[in-house]
Amino acid sequence: MNFTGTEADFQNFVNLVDDIRNAIGPDKLITSAMSADPRKLEGFNWNRLSKSMDYFNMMTYDFNGGWSNKASHNAPVYSYTDAEVPFFNWQSTLKKLNELGVPNSKICFGAPFYGRGVVTEGTAMLNSKTVKRSETVQPDGPISTSADYTNWKKEVYDGTPNYFFIKQKALAPNSGWTRKWDDEAKVPYLVKGNFFLSYDDEESIGIKAQFINDNSLGGTIVWTVYGDLEFGGSVTSYGSKLKKWSNVKSPLVNKINEVFANGNGGGNIAPTVNITAPINNTTFETGKNIEIKVNASDRDGTIVKVEFFNGQKKLGEDTSKPYSYTISSAQSGDYNLTAKATDNKGLSTISKVVKVTVIDEGQNTAPEVSIIAPNSGDSFTEGSTMVIEAKASDVDGSIEKVEFFRDDKKLGEVAKLPYKFTVNDLNVGNYTLTVKATDNEGAKTISKAVEVEVVKDITDSCSQYPDWSSQVSYAAKSDVKYNNIHYRNKWWTRNQNPKNNSGQWQVWEKIGPCDGGGTSTTNIPPKVQIDSPFEGTTLIKGASVSIKASASDSDGNIVNVEFFNGTNKLGEDASMPYTYDFINLLEGEYVLTVKATDNKGASTVSKNVKITVKSDSTGNDCIGVAKYEAGTTYRNNEEVQNKGTKYNCKIAGWCSSSSAWAYEPGVGMHWQHAWTKVEQCSSSLMSGKKLEILQNPVANQLTLLNVLNTNTRSRLEIQDAEVYIFDPVGNPIEFNFEIDNKNINCNVGSLKKGPYVCVVYYNKQKYTGKFVKIK
User: Fold this and answer.
1) What's the rounded Cα separation, in Å, for the pair 251 and 266?
2) Which of 159, 134, 150, 145 is nearest to 194 (CA)?
């Protein structure tokens, strides 16, 4: 249909979603069906969309069809050999969304309950060349297609049969069709002569559902939900059109429900893999070695190999733990490192990309720059002034200038500290702010974007309402202004002048004058939001959390802010800063909201913030001890942890057996022959001596302070300490740290916002402390 769109559509979509959210409030869902083509995801402002939208429904089907030049899969889970478009698959779509920072919990992937048939040149097989012809279809009109209308009639199925009809026609005995399975893409297909049909069945749908489980996605969408309906048994008719069958089955829906309920897709579960070193955006000098370290595991089997890649080029592979590969004498350039883990059943997973840069010794390093004010989400009043403040530095030179941009339009530049620029007479709208720093050798860096909004100054109490027009149809309860007076209609109306049609029995109700002095009887409700904790925060049982809120009122003042968990009121605060300390939390799920009330009694409830409190199951005695995995090669006296207990290997052969039923430590029938129980991993993560954090909360650099001597408050003077960082439920976090004779400095810039626990072991003592990551 040639709906190519324009660049402005991306921002207009964001504006539309924001307007809808503002209109319907925080307690209703906003979702959107979206293309799964990774190339089409770049232009969206995902940060803004994630704030207003609840789910992104990715149409992860129709990757191939009658338009394709090869007979290919409709909805492959993974890439496969010789694919016409190698990134048309579920994994590539998710990988792109992750790179763009889209929360997995808001992503839903689409499951097709239909197939796509094509005609091929010669005998049909995967990747056969398709044969196209001219057809006219609705609503597209004339097209060139290879769609199979012989088996799947254009007038009925348009070459895309539902699953129930595929079972009736192609999967029935003596149908002439042959079912095949692509173990790379994890989907089936059917062939007969020169006809090819890509489709999904219970096996592939189970794998797709497990993919959603394993990646903690929001859920699935189905096209179409009746595509797998099977009717049988006796029929009861209700009139001439409504029938009821005594036996109705939905095999694909049932498979999805089964996997979501049990976490078992009935097939092989893909392995997990991630690069632990180097960390993203590390810089190396030319000639240095780069050691790539990888963690890989498989829930229902073993890892047979881990391959290492720079872009599409394979660097090497490792078949045993610890998985690593060293790039010797690295040459200058940019590296996009990935690792691919393959399990014992041939299923593979590719890690997230880790980007590193290798520069020549003495080569200029680009400057660093960021916006420190305003913050994303800040709101300004029309006509007011906004000061943009930036921070810029250069490790091997000096800052030549800092340029300031609004929506790619340059506002101005500053050549010396402080790096500030003032924007006057702000206009209403949403704006994206960036700054660009240039160093003394011409290298440039652009900051992360900051989103701000400018809203109308509601000194005129009617300025947010449109002027009445005789050409507009107004639904009930529409607000307008006419002759500087505010009116609201009681029922639908068109071309009825408010002045002459207002009164007790007439369509328009006169609200009050728009005199600019706020004399209108319409009160504007306040604005309120929870600033912390963040959505998805997880805490340990017994922990406390400070709920912090911000509230404002454009035509009055805030008199009270109330704090809720579900419908249970926790407390209230009548003055800024609005906070409530929620202490000694019990295990469970919490849905937090705050309600702000203004001086005229209007109130607004914030968007929900969900947090989780879990029991503390992490033991400090097992820190750094690997978890047991059946089939892993273990040595005599090697330690593992399993189900909260630490074990020592006695006989390597039995310890390394893949027969978990026999030798899983503490569980297997004969585990005592292989392992010796050492101790429970049961002591609390927060046990140990207190460790204070310098400058807590922290942004990028964490400096640790030993408080054993509170008089001198001397920093840790140690060289042989072990340092660990855990999330609130005890999962270890990868990070880099340096120790000199005065400091322990930890680079936590890559951590997500939220609370963390730091544990230090030194001289047979344990020190623990908490800190909050704020950027």
Assistant:
1) 14
2) 150
Q: Assign a CATH topology to domain 689-773.
A: Immunoglobulin-like (2.60.40)
The first and second tokens of residue 368, run together, are 């660093």
In a 3-state reduction of DSSP, which class is residue 576?
Answer: coil
Six-digit token pair at 714?
């001397």
Reduce the secondary structure of 278-337 to three states and give it as a string: CCCCEEEECCCCEEEEEEEECCCCCEEEEEEEECCEEEEEECCCCEEEEECCCCCEEEEE
What φ, ψ does residue 212 adopt, rounded to 5°? Answer: -65, -45
- CATH fold of the domain at 368-455: Immunoglobulin-like (2.60.40)
Domain boundaries, the chain: 8-230, 272-359, 368-455, 459-523, 527-614, 626-680, 689-773
Q: What is the pLDDT of residues 291-324, one digit of tens each?
A: 999 989 887 788 999 999 998 899 999 999 999 9
Query: 272-359 adopts what CATH topology?
Result: Immunoglobulin-like (2.60.40)
Write the DSSP string, 661-690.
Answer: HHHSTTTSTTHHHHEEEEEE--S-TT-SEE
Instruction: Give the Cβ contact number of residue 526 at 10 Å.
Output: 24
Residue 474 CA: distances (Å) to CA of 463, 487, 499: 18, 12, 15
Helix, strand, coil: what percent of the chain each, to 5? Answer: 10, 40, 45
Quickly count: other Cβ atoms within 10 Å of residue 494's Cβ. Answer: 11
Q: Which of 121, 120, 133, 118 is nearest to 198 (CA)?
A: 118
Q: Retrieve residue 10's tokens.
A: 């991306």
Token pair recorded at residue 25: 């409030």
Write out pLDDT tens, residues 49-79: 998 999 999 999 999 999 999 999 999 999 9
Taking the C-alpha atoms of residue 371 and residue 448, their distance in angstroms, rounded to an integer, is 8
Question: Going by DSSP bridges, is the β-strand pair 242-249/473-474 parallel, antiparallel, or unpaired?
Answer: unpaired
Which of 748, 746, 687, 741 lies closest to 714 in space, CA to CA?
741
Please check whether the two domains, 272-359 and 459-523, share a CATH topology.
no
CA 119, 121, 122, 125 torsion-angle sign: negative
- CATH number of this structure's domain 527-614, picked from the four choices 3.40.718.10, 1.10.3720.10, 2.60.40.10, 3.40.50.300: 2.60.40.10
Could you tell me how many residues make up the chain?
A: 775
DSSP state of 254: H
Name which of 735, 775, 744, 737 is nearest 762 in CA terms: 744
Domain 8-230's class?
Answer: alpha beta
What would the two tokens of residue 134 be?
A: 């001219």
Rounded CA gap, 25 and 12, in Å? Answer: 20
Query: Which fold does the domain 459-523 belong to in CATH?
Result: Seminal Fluid Protein  PDC-109 (Domain B) (2.10.10)
Whether the bond into 26 is cis, omega within 30 of 0: no
State the Cα–Cα distance between residues 772 and 127, nearest whole angstrom.
52
Question: Cα separation of 557 and 368, whole Å?
Answer: 41
As given in the structure block, the two tokens for residue 359 are: 């520069």
Q: CA-to-CA distance for 298 and 304, rounded, in angstroms? A: 10
User: Who contacts 126 (Cβ-Cβ below 8 Å, separation ≥6)?
Assistant: 71, 72, 73, 80, 180, 182, 189, 196
> What is the distance between the alpha carbons of residues 84 and 70, in angstroms, rounded to a whole number?
7
Q: What is the pTM of this model?
A: 0.41
What is the rounded CA–CA span in Å between residue 474 and residue 477?
Answer: 8
How do residues 146-202 score in pLDDT, each as one tens digit? 999 999 999 888 999 999 999 999 999 899 999 999 988 999 999 999 999 999 999
Half-sphere exposure of 502 (CA within 13 A, CB side): 16
CATH of 626-680, one of 1.10.405, 2.10.10, 3.90.1640, 2.30.29: 2.10.10
Burial label for 52, CB within 10 Å (0-12, 13-18, 19+), is: middle
Backbone angles phi, psi at 589, to 5 degrees: -100, 140
